[in-house]
Every structure is written in C-alpha cells, then in structure tokens.
Amino acid sequence: MTFTRLTMSGEFRSSAFVFALIVYGVIKSTGAQAPTTSPAPTPCALRSNTSCAECLQNVTCLWCTPTKQCVDYPVRNILPPSSVCPLNDARWGLCWGKSDKTKPQITIDAKSGNKKEDAKVERQTRARKSRQKARKTEMQLRHDEIRQKYGMAKDNPYARMDDH
C-alpha cells in the first residue's frame, strides 16, 4: 500500500489564493455582520457621483474613479473590460487598492510561496526514498543471511543457462 501526497498545481494554487483573497476582502469590507433583515441593496447606478466608499458598500458594485460612476461589476469577466472602466482606475472591494497593481503582486507572492513549498516537499520525498532504499537493502541482506544459514541460498539465475 503506497501513500502519495496529492498537491495542487502552481496555477491552481495561485487561482485559489486570489479567490481566497477576494473573498476575504468582501467579508472584511462588509464587516462580517450577522445576517439581519435589511432592505434590498440600492442598485449600483444610484450610487454614482457619490464617493468610492459609498459605492463599494454594495459588494456587487465597481467604482470608476475618473468618471465617478458606480456600476455593477461585470461578473462574466474576471477583470472589468476597459469599456466599463480602465483597469488602473477601477476599484472593487476596497477604495485604496488598484486592481491593475494588486493582481500581479498577488500572483507573484503566490508563485514564490509555491516554489518554497515545492522544494521542501521534494527534499522530504528524496529523504524518504533514500531511507526506504536503505531499509530494503538491509532487509534483503538479512534474508540472504537466513537463506545461507539454512542452506536455502538462491542459485544464480544465470547458472541455469550455463548448464544447458
């Protein structure tokens, strides 16, 4: 019975990390409040020409800084297209974080962490395999000694070919 360690690919872990960070930002921005019966959220378009903080109280809204427009986040796209708002001017979740700077930095951080973890796992695997090989060799020697002691030594498999 062999046990193998299942690891996620680097790309999947990066995506999972970005997703977790976005979920954390949403929870943090909403204040993780207990669910209460509140009125339906105001549509994003009605929050235009207010402030970024006012717009982003609704987690489905996207604030475009130069136009001061509050629009529904285009959920069909991962990043908002430039037709909605230029990426460096779009704010979602937090007013102070630029979308175009945050995503590459998160990706870089996630990838560097993966290399360290992968190297550690690789070292552990090599050490485990070398210990296993040493144990196997030791066990084989013990078995050979017992066979010699009781006269059940294995014949050389090539000796049979030489006899014929």
From TrEMBL:
<feature type="signal peptide">
    <location>
        <begin position="1"/>
        <end position="32"/>
    </location>
</feature>
<feature type="region of interest" description="Disordered">
    <location>
        <begin position="106"/>
        <end position="164"/>
    </location>
</feature>
<keyword id="KW-0325">Glycoprotein</keyword>
<dbReference type="InterPro" id="IPR052304">
    <property type="entry name" value="PTTG1IP"/>
</dbReference>
<dbReference type="GO" id="GO:0005737">
    <property type="term" value="C:cytoplasm"/>
</dbReference>
<feature type="compositionally biased region" description="Basic and acidic residues">
    <location>
        <begin position="112"/>
        <end position="125"/>
    </location>
</feature>
<dbReference type="GO" id="GO:0006606">
    <property type="term" value="P:protein import into nucleus"/>
</dbReference>
<feature type="domain" description="PSI">
    <location>
        <begin position="43"/>
        <end position="86"/>
    </location>
</feature>
<keyword id="KW-0732">Signal</keyword>
<protein>
    <recommendedName>
        <fullName>PSI domain-containing protein</fullName>
    </recommendedName>
</protein>
<dbReference type="GO" id="GO:0005634">
    <property type="term" value="C:nucleus"/>
</dbReference>
<feature type="compositionally biased region" description="Basic and acidic residues">
    <location>
        <begin position="135"/>
        <end position="148"/>
    </location>
</feature>
<dbReference type="InterPro" id="IPR016201">
    <property type="entry name" value="PSI"/>
</dbReference>
